[in-house]
Amino acid sequence: MVENVFNRIIRRKMYGNGSRETRGKILNRGEIEHLLGETDALRVDGFDEAILGVCERFDTSPVVAYDVDKCLQILVKGGMSLEEAREYFEFNILGAWVGEGTPTFITRTN
How far apart are CA 33 and CA 13, in angstroms? Predict the structure, then answer.
């Protein structure tokens, strides 16, 4: 099932410093792919609305960053209860390690 959830992003060449060009604005799919450059970053199928942006750390390739609450909202809209959505998310999405390109999930604070 995990294999069906994750989808390799199309490889693209990164031009310039994307993080400075896009800081402070909502990114569209093309801009996210641009920031990821030639990486093996993965995206969760059906959860594009929950993308916050790209997460970068020293000495690692960038990965897609998702908003946990928005991921849960998407699952609830799909017909799950909130409890079912949390269980599904934690086991099948958050709990899945599919390599260095595995996305990161961010819980926002107030």
Answer: 9
Mean of per-residue pLDDT scores for the chain:
77
53 forms beta bridges with 65
Q: Say how far apart CA 40 and CA 82 lie, in whole Å.
A: 31
N-terminal to C-terminal alpha carbon distance within the chain: 33
pTM as predicted? 0.72
For residue 36, the enclosing domain spans 2-106
Residue type, 30: G
Q: How distant is the alpha carbon of residue 57 from its chain centre?
A: 15
Per-residue pLDDT tens for 61-92? Answer: 888 999 999 999 999 999 999 999 999 999 99
Domain count, the chain: 1
Identify whether the C-beta of residue 15 lies closer than 8 Å to the C-beta of residue 34.
Answer: yes
The Cβ-side half-sphere exposure at 103, using a 13 Å CA radius, reads: 29
Residues ≥6 apart with Cβ < 8 Å to 109: none
